[in-house]
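Work Package 4 report. The design task specified in the project plan requires that, given a folded chain encoded as structure tokens, an amino acid be chosen for each position. We show below one input record used in the internal validation round.
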């Protein structure tokens, strides 16, 4: 089973397709979760800077 790729919207659609076609293994699901959380972790500093920038106004 391939890993989910693309935007969050695309990944949600891909996940729905996977769940409709088969039961993914817990290992696969954990890998997808860790990948998504890793990307979120990378974006948090950028989001924090945006929030701090908005507070100055």
């Amino acid at each position: 089973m391939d890993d989910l790729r693309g935007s969050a919207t695309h990944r949600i659609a891909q996940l729905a397709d996977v769940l409709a076609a088969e039961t993914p293994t817990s290992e696969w699901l954990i890998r997808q979760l860790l990948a998504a959380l890793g990307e979120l972790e990378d974006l948090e500093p950028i989001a924090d800077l945006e929030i701090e920038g908005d507070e100055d106004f």
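The mean pLDDT is 91. Validation will be extended to a larger panel in the next phase.
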